[in-house]
Amino acid sequence: MKKIAVPWSVKWKPDVLLTDGDGNRYGVSGSPALCAYRDKLYLVRQGREDSGWMWCAIFDGKTWGKDKLIPSADKAYGVSGSPALCVYRDKLHIVHGGRNDSGYIWWATYDVDHDLWGADQLIPNSAGAYGLSGSPALCVYQDKLQLFHGGRGETGYIWWATYDGDTNQWGTDKLIPSDDKAYGVSDSPAAHVYENHIVLLRQGRKNSGWTWCATFDGKTWQDGLIPNPGYGVTASPAVEEYRGKLYCVRQGRHNDGWVWAGVGMNTLLGPTS
Question: Which of 24, 108, 180, 246 is the most exposed place for a label (fewest CB within 10 A)?
Fold first, then answer.
């Protein structure tokens, strides 16, 4: 029998309960967020039993540090659902829903050079805060921070706003690609930049059970089921690039309880195999 070579393989270590150097466990509600920043791994999430407060633990490559409310006990960030993390212009940016399912988006930054968390603030401001359902997604594209989220009150459509580090301003929150042809979403989207395009994956509107993929080339949005007829999905997918290919990982349709992974590749680079 001919031996089939696999393109890559990962050897996973046994699963362990995450603790700090003193053996203290980290609590969590919902889904955590991870981000590598300045050679450390940042773990941010809502505390246990839907506490409504955001906690952060840091891994230095050897040891997990003490779990801390951010920025501190008397100024802790309130949170609903899961936060989104991204490094932009050498700061860690956190975007999240407000406490008690407020339905609005909050944003804060961390400056590692000064070990300083900024003020948690409604975006773009308290008078015109962006509405939210589910959890937001972040990525950096064309030197701007890109924010994607479902609209307030579970409208079932995706909204998009950008942050410009030159002007320190958030732009207008808008439906994509336009008001009269908005893309549907259930739960939370997943965003990634691949081959100079934004790739936005999510479950279709009204818990359709299928994965949709929208792409943006800097000028135009396109949307479609992937691949066709489509990947089944429950809740929100995850997307990441590895060795030139995109990996879409999610629970299968109808809460099947299993993890599925689809692989995609820029067609200009050749076939996916």
Answer: 180
